[in-house]
User: What shape does this take?
Amino acid sequence: MRLLAEADVGGDARAVARWGNVAYVAAASQGLLLLDLSRIDSPQFIGRFDTPGSSVDVAVKAKYAFVADGPGGLLALDVSDPAAPRKVGQLPLEGAQSLALADERLFVAGEEGQLWAVDVLEPSRPRLIDEWSGPETLRALAVAHERLVLAAGESGVILLDITSEGGFRERGRYDTPGFAQDIALSTRFAFVADGDGGLLVLDLQ
Assistant: This one.
């Protein structure tokens, strides 16, 4: 493994997503930065959107980027012109910090244990479908096959079913030995970064 390129974002790069030849970097107080990856060894800044809060996560689908902006809530941006991203929608989900996108549904975790399901079929009019309150340490979330799995810090891992209406139904919990920090999913298994507990593999059946 070797370093091929780097770009100074002028702040704290918190999350990154890629769509096509563009990288989208949630850069805290610097907002959302867009970089051209046409030359992978020389990424070039091509656009920026100055968000009202602190950009901490980003999810992208086609010409739209969704930004978890902390105190700025959830933002929907039209990025069809990467040089001039523009806001087309917003929801006041204060403390938004983590995102998981599944088709036309966006799941948003808040910094105080809130979990929101948002319909983004029309990004210019994001619509809140459901809300769930959990532990105050929701660190990450992942979605696959109508399941939403949460890395919940000292509360371990929480498994939720996604209802046909797009809401939540709690299905189970697993108290991990460490501090659940991050999570990835396959069809049946969850892979958990558990701090001092190491890497855990959980069977979701």
Remarks:
- The chain has a mean pLDDT of 92.
- DSSP finds no helices and 19 strands in the chain.
- The radius of gyration is 17 Å.
- The first strand starts at residue 15 and ends at 19.
